[in-house]
Protein backbone atom coordinates (compact mmCIF):
# COMPACT_ATOMS: atom_id res chain seq x y z
CA UNK A 1 0.00 0.00 0.00
CA UNK A 2 1.00 3.68 -0.32
CA UNK A 3 1.65 5.55 2.92
CA UNK A 4 3.02 8.90 4.14
CA UNK A 5 6.01 7.59 6.07
CA UNK A 6 8.21 9.73 8.30
CA UNK A 7 11.68 8.15 8.34
CA UNK A 8 13.65 10.95 10.00
CA UNK A 9 12.56 14.18 11.69
CA UNK A 10 11.97 17.15 9.42
CA UNK A 11 9.83 17.49 6.30
CA UNK A 12 12.70 16.14 4.18
CA UNK A 13 12.33 12.88 6.10
CA UNK A 14 8.70 12.49 5.01
CA UNK A 15 7.71 10.78 1.78
CA UNK A 16 4.89 8.81 0.21
CA UNK A 17 6.16 5.30 -0.43
CA UNK A 18 5.21 1.64 -0.55
CA UNK A 19 4.71 0.13 2.90
CA UNK A 20 3.40 -3.24 4.11
CA UNK A 21 -0.37 -3.37 4.54
CA UNK A 22 -1.06 -3.63 8.28
CA UNK A 23 -2.76 -6.71 9.74
CA UNK A 24 -5.53 -5.96 12.24
CA UNK A 25 -4.63 -7.49 15.62
CA UNK A 26 -7.02 -8.88 18.22
CA UNK A 27 -9.84 -6.41 18.79
CA UNK A 28 -8.80 -4.32 15.78
CA UNK A 29 -10.25 -3.52 12.37
CA UNK A 30 -8.55 -2.65 9.10
CA UNK A 31 -9.90 0.52 7.50
CA UNK A 32 -9.51 1.32 3.79
CA UNK A 33 -8.85 5.04 4.11
CA UNK A 34 -10.66 7.59 1.95
CA UNK A 35 -9.64 10.81 3.72
CA UNK A 36 -7.42 12.04 6.55
CA UNK A 37 -6.74 15.58 7.79
CA UNK A 38 -3.62 17.54 8.69
CA UNK A 39 -3.27 18.53 12.35
CA UNK A 40 -0.95 20.69 14.39
CA UNK A 41 0.20 17.58 16.25
CA UNK A 42 1.55 16.13 12.96
CA UNK A 43 3.95 19.07 12.77
CA UNK A 44 5.21 18.19 16.26
CA UNK A 45 5.72 14.58 15.13
CA UNK A 46 7.53 15.68 11.98
CA UNK A 47 9.75 18.04 14.00
CA UNK A 48 10.20 15.53 16.84
CA UNK A 49 9.18 18.19 19.35
CA UNK A 50 6.79 18.39 22.32
CA UNK A 51 4.12 15.66 22.27
CA UNK A 52 5.52 14.58 18.87
CA UNK A 53 8.63 13.22 20.56
CA UNK A 54 6.60 10.15 21.57
CA UNK A 55 6.63 8.92 17.95
CA UNK A 56 9.15 6.19 17.13
CA UNK A 57 10.35 6.42 13.56
CA UNK A 58 9.65 5.28 10.93
CA UNK A 59 6.03 6.24 11.51
CA UNK A 60 3.01 6.51 9.20
CA UNK A 61 1.35 9.88 9.95
CA UNK A 62 -2.38 10.64 10.16
CA UNK A 63 -4.52 11.09 13.28
CA UNK A 64 -8.06 11.06 11.98
CA UNK A 65 -8.66 8.73 9.02
CA UNK A 66 -12.13 8.03 7.66
CA UNK A 67 -13.02 5.18 5.32
CA UNK A 68 -14.59 1.73 5.31
CA UNK A 69 -13.88 -1.33 7.45
CA UNK A 70 -12.54 -4.04 5.10
CA UNK A 71 -11.05 -6.65 7.47
CA UNK A 72 -11.57 -7.74 11.07
CA UNK A 73 -9.08 -8.97 13.64
CA UNK A 74 -10.00 -11.64 16.20
CA UNK A 75 -12.82 -10.96 18.67
CA UNK A 76 -14.44 -8.17 16.67
CA UNK A 77 -18.18 -7.82 16.02
CA UNK A 78 -18.77 -9.10 12.46
CA UNK A 79 -21.32 -6.34 11.94
CA UNK A 80 -18.46 -3.88 11.60
CA UNK A 81 -17.35 -5.32 8.25
CA UNK A 82 -18.23 -2.89 5.44
CA UNK A 83 -19.15 -0.13 7.90
CA UNK A 84 -18.36 3.49 6.91
CA UNK A 85 -16.32 4.79 9.84
CA UNK A 86 -14.06 7.51 11.15
CA UNK A 87 -11.31 6.87 13.72
CA UNK A 88 -10.97 8.86 16.93
CA UNK A 89 -7.31 9.97 17.24
CA UNK A 90 -6.90 9.37 20.99
CA UNK A 91 -7.00 5.69 21.90
CA UNK A 92 -7.90 5.13 25.57
CA UNK A 93 -6.50 2.10 27.42
CA UNK A 94 -9.92 0.56 28.05
CA UNK A 95 -8.85 -0.83 31.42
CA UNK A 96 -8.61 2.09 33.87
CA UNK A 97 -11.24 3.60 36.19
CA UNK A 98 -11.83 6.58 33.86
CA UNK A 99 -12.35 4.29 30.85
CA UNK A 100 -14.74 2.14 32.94
CA UNK A 101 -17.00 5.11 33.62
CA UNK A 102 -16.96 6.40 30.04
CA UNK A 103 -14.50 9.23 30.69
CA UNK A 104 -12.09 8.14 27.96
CA UNK A 105 -10.80 11.74 27.65
CA UNK A 106 -9.31 11.44 31.13
CA UNK A 107 -7.63 8.06 30.60
CA UNK A 108 -4.04 8.52 31.82
CA UNK A 109 -2.73 5.78 29.52
CA UNK A 110 -4.17 6.93 26.19
CA UNK A 111 -2.13 6.80 23.02
CA UNK A 112 -2.58 8.64 19.74
CA UNK A 113 -2.99 7.28 16.22
CA UNK A 114 -0.19 8.51 13.99
CA UNK A 115 2.00 9.22 17.01
CA UNK A 116 2.30 6.09 19.19
CA UNK A 117 1.23 3.74 16.37
CA UNK A 118 0.99 3.97 12.59
CA UNK A 119 -1.71 6.37 11.46
CA UNK A 120 -4.10 6.81 8.60
CA UNK A 121 -2.25 8.87 6.00
CA UNK A 122 -2.11 5.60 4.07
CA UNK A 123 -4.34 3.39 1.98
CA UNK A 124 -5.00 1.16 5.00
CA UNK A 125 -4.80 1.59 8.77
CA UNK A 126 -5.36 -0.85 11.64
CA UNK A 127 -7.32 0.67 14.55
CA UNK A 128 -8.89 -0.79 17.72
CA UNK A 129 -12.52 -1.59 16.85
CA UNK A 130 -13.85 0.48 19.77
CA UNK A 131 -12.04 3.54 18.40
CA UNK A 132 -13.90 3.63 15.08
CA UNK A 133 -17.30 5.33 14.88
CA UNK A 134 -20.10 4.90 12.40
CA UNK A 135 -20.18 8.02 10.21
CA UNK A 136 -23.51 7.02 8.61
CA UNK A 137 -23.97 9.14 5.46
CA UNK A 138 -21.37 11.76 6.42
CA UNK A 139 -18.69 11.83 3.72
CA UNK A 140 -15.17 10.79 4.70
CA UNK A 141 -13.58 14.26 4.33
CA UNK A 142 -16.20 15.89 6.55
CA UNK A 143 -16.01 13.12 9.16
CA UNK A 144 -12.22 13.36 9.26
CA UNK A 145 -12.38 17.16 9.50
CA UNK A 146 -14.56 17.14 12.62
CA UNK A 147 -13.59 14.00 14.55
CA UNK A 148 -10.67 15.65 16.33
CA UNK A 149 -12.14 19.14 16.83
CA UNK A 150 -15.88 19.05 17.57
CA UNK A 151 -15.76 16.32 20.27
CA UNK A 152 -13.12 18.30 22.24
CA UNK A 153 -15.26 21.43 21.98
CA UNK A 154 -18.33 19.51 23.19
CA UNK A 155 -16.27 18.17 26.11
CA UNK A 156 -15.13 21.70 27.00
CA UNK A 157 -18.61 23.20 26.70
CA UNK A 158 -19.98 20.41 28.92
CA UNK A 159 -17.17 21.03 31.44
CA UNK A 160 -18.21 24.69 31.65
CA UNK A 161 -21.91 23.71 31.99
CA UNK A 162 -22.90 26.19 29.26
CA UNK A 163 -26.63 26.91 28.89
CA UNK A 164 -28.60 29.02 26.43
CA UNK A 165 -28.71 31.78 29.04
CA UNK A 166 -24.92 32.18 29.11
CA UNK A 167 -22.78 34.85 27.50
CA UNK A 168 -19.70 33.08 26.22
CA UNK A 169 -16.38 34.54 25.09
CA UNK A 170 -14.52 32.39 22.53
CA UNK A 171 -10.85 33.29 22.07
CA UNK A 172 -8.87 31.92 19.15
CA UNK A 173 -12.10 31.92 17.16
CA UNK A 174 -10.31 32.25 13.80
CA UNK A 175 -9.05 28.66 13.64
CA UNK A 176 -10.67 25.31 12.92
CA UNK A 177 -11.39 24.62 16.60
CA UNK A 178 -12.69 28.18 17.03
CA UNK A 179 -15.10 27.83 14.11
CA UNK A 180 -16.69 24.66 15.51
CA UNK A 181 -16.74 26.14 19.04
CA UNK A 182 -18.73 29.18 17.87
CA UNK A 183 -21.03 26.98 15.76
CA UNK A 184 -21.71 24.59 18.63
CA UNK A 185 -22.35 27.37 21.16
CA UNK A 186 -24.77 29.05 18.75
CA UNK A 187 -26.47 25.67 18.25
CA UNK A 188 -26.98 25.58 22.05
CA UNK A 189 -28.45 29.07 21.92
CA UNK A 190 -25.72 30.82 23.93
CA UNK A 191 -24.77 34.44 23.21
CA UNK A 192 -21.27 34.45 21.73
CA UNK A 193 -18.51 37.03 21.50
CA UNK A 194 -15.79 35.64 19.22
CA UNK A 195 -12.28 37.06 19.43
CA UNK A 196 -9.65 36.44 16.78
CA UNK A 197 -6.53 38.03 15.32
CA UNK A 198 -8.04 38.51 11.86
CA UNK A 199 -11.42 39.90 10.89
CA UNK A 200 -14.04 37.15 10.57
CA UNK A 201 -17.24 37.18 8.56
CA UNK A 202 -20.34 38.16 10.53
CA UNK A 203 -22.79 35.47 11.60
CA UNK A 204 -26.09 35.55 13.44
CA UNK A 205 -25.90 36.12 17.17
CA UNK A 206 -22.11 36.38 17.19
CA UNK A 207 -20.30 39.59 18.05
CA UNK A 208 -16.76 39.84 16.66
CA UNK A 209 -13.70 41.25 18.39
CA UNK A 210 -10.39 41.64 16.59
CA UNK A 211 -7.27 41.81 18.77
CA UNK A 212 -3.71 41.05 17.71
CA UNK A 213 -2.34 40.16 21.15
CA UNK A 214 -3.33 39.62 24.77
CA UNK A 215 -2.96 43.29 25.76
CA UNK A 216 -5.14 44.45 22.86
CA UNK A 217 -7.70 41.77 23.74
CA UNK A 218 -7.83 42.79 27.42
CA UNK A 219 -8.36 46.38 26.32
CA UNK A 220 -11.17 45.43 23.90
CA UNK A 221 -12.90 43.19 26.48
CA UNK A 222 -13.01 45.99 29.06
CA UNK A 223 -15.86 47.47 26.99
CA UNK A 224 -18.01 44.33 27.49
CA UNK A 225 -20.21 43.20 30.36
CA UNK A 226 -18.52 40.38 32.31
CA UNK A 227 -18.90 36.95 30.71
CA UNK A 228 -20.35 33.75 32.22
CA UNK A 229 -17.94 31.51 30.34
CA UNK A 230 -14.60 31.99 28.56
CA UNK A 231 -13.60 29.24 26.12
CA UNK A 232 -10.10 29.44 24.70
CA UNK A 233 -8.80 27.40 21.80
CA UNK A 234 -5.79 29.60 20.98
CA UNK A 235 -3.34 27.96 23.37
CA UNK A 236 -1.82 31.37 24.26
CA UNK A 237 -1.29 31.87 28.01
CA UNK A 238 -1.88 35.62 27.82
CA UNK A 239 -5.11 35.19 25.85
CA UNK A 240 -6.41 32.57 28.32
CA UNK A 241 -5.61 34.96 31.20
CA UNK A 242 -7.43 37.83 29.45
CA UNK A 243 -10.47 35.57 29.15
CA UNK A 244 -10.38 34.64 32.85
CA UNK A 245 -10.11 38.34 33.77
CA UNK A 246 -13.17 39.13 31.62
CA UNK A 247 -15.37 36.66 33.56
CA UNK A 248 -17.96 37.81 36.05
CA UNK A 249 -18.82 36.38 39.47
CA UNK A 250 -18.66 32.55 39.41
CA UNK A 251 -17.47 32.57 35.81
CA UNK A 252 -16.07 29.38 34.25
CA UNK A 253 -13.01 29.34 32.01
CA UNK A 254 -12.06 26.34 29.91
CA UNK A 255 -9.20 25.99 27.48
CA UNK A 256 -8.69 23.27 24.87
CA UNK A 257 -5.11 23.91 23.89
CA UNK A 258 -1.75 24.75 25.42
CA UNK A 259 0.09 24.64 22.13
CA UNK A 260 1.70 28.09 22.29
CA UNK A 261 2.62 28.81 25.92
CA UNK A 262 3.53 26.54 28.80
CA UNK A 263 3.00 29.26 31.42
CA UNK A 264 -0.36 30.67 32.49
CA UNK A 265 -0.32 33.68 34.81
CA UNK A 266 -3.56 34.50 36.64
CA UNK A 267 -4.59 37.01 39.29
CA UNK A 268 -5.08 34.68 42.27
CA UNK A 269 -7.11 37.24 44.19
CA UNK A 270 -9.52 37.84 41.27
CA UNK A 271 -9.91 34.07 40.78
CA UNK A 272 -10.46 33.40 44.48
CA UNK A 273 -12.65 36.31 45.54
CA UNK A 274 -14.85 36.19 42.42
CA UNK A 275 -15.35 32.40 42.64
CA UNK A 276 -13.99 31.82 39.16
CA UNK A 277 -13.01 28.39 37.88
CA UNK A 278 -10.38 27.40 35.30
CA UNK A 279 -10.13 24.00 33.62
CA UNK A 280 -8.04 22.55 30.85
CA UNK A 281 -9.91 20.10 28.62
CA UNK A 282 -7.92 17.74 26.42
CA UNK A 283 -9.26 14.95 24.24
CA UNK A 284 -12.85 13.70 24.30
CA UNK A 285 -15.00 10.81 25.47
CA UNK A 286 -16.50 8.28 23.02
CA UNK A 287 -19.90 9.80 23.77
CA UNK A 288 -18.65 13.24 22.64
CA UNK A 289 -17.58 11.71 19.32
CA UNK A 290 -21.02 10.13 18.79
CA UNK A 291 -22.70 13.45 19.62
CA UNK A 292 -20.38 15.31 17.23
CA UNK A 293 -21.14 12.93 14.37
CA UNK A 294 -24.90 13.25 15.01
CA UNK A 295 -24.65 17.07 14.89
CA UNK A 296 -22.85 16.88 11.55
CA UNK A 297 -25.18 14.20 10.19
CA UNK A 298 -28.21 16.36 11.03
CA UNK A 299 -26.65 19.41 9.40
CA UNK A 300 -26.43 21.38 12.67
CA UNK A 301 -22.70 21.94 12.30
CA UNK A 302 -20.48 21.80 9.22
CA UNK A 303 -16.69 22.05 9.28
CA UNK A 304 -14.87 24.47 7.00
CA UNK A 305 -12.62 22.54 4.66
CA UNK A 306 -9.90 24.93 3.46
CA UNK A 307 -8.17 22.76 0.86
CA UNK A 308 -7.92 19.18 -0.36
CA UNK A 309 -4.88 17.36 -1.71
CA UNK A 310 -4.08 13.88 -3.02
CA UNK A 311 -1.93 11.59 -0.83
CA UNK A 312 1.03 12.23 -3.15
CA UNK A 313 0.71 15.95 -2.36
CA UNK A 314 0.88 15.53 1.43
CA UNK A 315 4.46 16.82 1.84
CA UNK A 316 3.59 19.99 -0.07
CA UNK A 317 0.39 20.30 1.96
CA UNK A 318 2.42 20.21 5.19
CA UNK A 319 4.84 22.79 3.78
CA UNK A 320 1.97 25.22 3.24
CA UNK A 321 0.05 24.20 6.38
CA UNK A 322 0.65 27.32 8.47
CA UNK A 323 -0.04 29.67 5.57
CA UNK A 324 -3.07 27.82 4.21
CA UNK A 325 -6.43 29.59 4.08
CA UNK A 326 -8.93 29.17 6.90
CA UNK A 327 -10.30 25.69 7.39
CA UNK A 328 -9.24 22.10 7.62
CA UNK A 329 -6.65 20.70 5.19
CA UNK A 330 -7.86 17.31 3.97
CA UNK A 331 -5.92 14.60 2.16
CA UNK A 332 -7.97 12.50 -0.24
CA UNK A 333 -6.31 9.11 -0.01
CA UNK A 334 -8.75 7.24 -2.26
ZN1 LIG B 1 -7.98 4.15 30.41
TrEMBL record:
Molecular function terms from GO: alcohol dehydrogenase (NAD+) activity; metal ion binding
Gene3D superfamilies: Medium-chain alcohol dehydrogenases, catalytic domain, NAD(P)-binding Rossmann-like Domain
Primary enzyme class: oxidoreductase
Record Pfam families: ADH_N, ADH_zinc_N
Cofactor dependency: Zn(2+)
Enoyl reductase (ER) domain segment(s): 10-331
InterPro entries: ADH-like_C (IPR013149), ADH-like_N (IPR013154), ER (IPR020843), GroES-like_sf (IPR011032), NAD(P)-bd_dom_sf (IPR036291), Zn_alcohol_dh (IPR050129)
The protein's Enzyme Commission number: 1.1.1.1
Keywords of this entry: Metal-binding, Oxidoreductase, Zinc
Keyword Transmembrane: no
Domain of life (superkingdom): Bacteria
The protein, known as: Propanol-preferring alcohol dehydrogenase
Taxonomic source organism: Agromyces terreus
Amino acid sequence: MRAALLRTNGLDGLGVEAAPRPEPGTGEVLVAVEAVSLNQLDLNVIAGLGPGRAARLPRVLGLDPAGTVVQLGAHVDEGLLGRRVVAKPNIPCGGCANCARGREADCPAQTVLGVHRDGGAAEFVAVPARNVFDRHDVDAATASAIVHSLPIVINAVDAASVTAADRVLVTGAGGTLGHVAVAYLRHLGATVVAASRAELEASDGVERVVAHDAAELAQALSAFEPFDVALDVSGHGGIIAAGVAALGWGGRAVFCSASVDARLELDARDLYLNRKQVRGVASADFEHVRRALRLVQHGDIAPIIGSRHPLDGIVEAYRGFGASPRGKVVIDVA
